[in-house]
Amino acid sequence: MLMDLFDRLFPINRSITGDGVRESLSILGEIVPISQKEYPSGTECFDWTVPKEWNVRSAFVKDGQGRTLIDFKENNLHLMGYSTPFQGYVSREELMEHLYTRPDLPDAIPYVMSYYKENWGFCVEHSRLAEFKDEWYEVVIDSELKDGHMTIGEGFIQGSSGREILLSTYVCHPSMAINELSGPLVQTMVYRYLQQREGDLKYSYRFLYVPETIGSLLYLSQHGDELKRNVAAGYVVTCVGHGEAFTYKKSKQANTLADKAAMHVLKQSGKLHKVVDWNPFGSDERQYCSQAFKLPMGSLMRTMYGEYPEYHTSLDNRSLISEEVLEETVQMYIDLIETLEANETYECTHIHGEPKLDKRGLYPYTGGTRTKAQQRQISAITNLLAFSDGSHDLMDIAEKLNVMGKDLREAALLLEQHGLLRNVSSARYDLLTQMG
């Protein structure tokens, strides 16, 4: 399914506005419910303004013999993003001023855009520059820049609490695999999984599909205060389709629930991974973690932006990603979410020595050989009783046992049913809410 979706989405010309975004969201909306919200050109979002809407019908460059040298229909990266309409003949000298290449990657078409300053241009493989020998060229850009709308996609699943987990990805790049489609594909599959659990979730889940940077700023300008009140943890889903190892970029605060859960799950997964500090370069974590909002937002990636040579070029294509890697990333996000769902903080109600477990059916009366499952259960029970003091959550205790936090949930519920543990998470959340 993932690669079938990829093949449908890859040719679409996406930008920060336009029909390509709407079409992409509609295709993803066949898998999960995604509402499309439209914001008019000119809408102010802090220091930014929603630009005019951009759509393209065709664009090409022909030489003096009428041969087509560059054609938008062959690869939408050939046209600089947000190119203004143009039709006419230009000299070779003038054309070269509007032609972009990557000398370091001579067989790649670079990704170039000019969102906020009107201009036009084409992008081509550097190795093809020798083809441009004529003195004059016909240039046609049949595009439209007009007052329109910016489109944001949003999905939501209601949990039993008012606390939210926020997942955000972007839908604004044309035909690139890792740096565009891997994020929406993985997020949509995680969304689909959680839909199947609807009615059995502690947290509510919000899924945003935004144009990078200005889209997250626009959403924050409309809903930032609400997110500050409700978001317990969140992740920017991008660059998740390539590489053997995972990369986790911490939130700006570096010690949030999002950070703790991601680093715990990665460590216990046994997968190769690295953890990097937040910095003001990257994706929408820059906006979510900005000083006015300070949302607990990290980013769980694989090979991150800028760390593979094909980044922002036509070489970032289908050959770089695989269904296996995408599915493994989906599962890592599911493990992360299951850990957040399971995580609670408990107090042991029996503090005068150890409680007698066998009379409660929680410990075998007779000694001797025990199965691996029994040994794990006894270990979980005894450690939960020993370390549940109202300040250590399940992830903390799981770290001592070198297991996933979610794997302690069953034993914790059993002890709670027997009155030996008291869940204090809700009380702590209420206190934190009152404080801020």
Walkthrough of the structure:
The protein folds into three domains: 2-51 and 149-342, Aminopeptidase (3-Layer(aba) Sandwich); 54-146, Glucose Oxidase, domain 1; 345-435, Arc Repressor Mutant, subunit A (Orthogonal Bundle). It has twelve helices and 19 strands. It has helices at residues 2-9, 19-28, 92-97, 177-196, 214-230, 257-269, 285-288, 323-342, 372-387, 394-401, 409-417, 425-435; strands at 35-40, 44-45, 48-49, 53-62, 68-71, 86-91, 99-100, 122-123, 136-146, 149-157, 164-170, 204-210, 231-236, 246-249, 273-276, 297-301, 345-348, 389-393, 421-423. Strands 1-10-12-11-13-16-14-15 form an eight-stranded mixed beta sheet, with helices on both faces. The radius of gyration is 26 Å and the shape is elongated. It starts with a helix and ends with a helix.
| Low-confidence runs | 429-436
Q: State the end-to-end CA separation.
A: 43 Å
Largest sheet report? 8 strands, mixed
Tell me how many strands there are: 19
What is the tally of helical segments? 12
Kindly summarize this structure in a few lines.
The protein is α/β, with parallel strands linked by helices and 436 residues long. Helix content is 33%, strand content 23%. It has three domains: 244 residues, Aminopeptidase; 93 residues, 3-Layer(bba) Sandwich (Glucose Oxidase, domain 1); 91 residues, Arc Repressor Mutant, subunit A (Orthogonal Bundle), CATH 1.10.10.
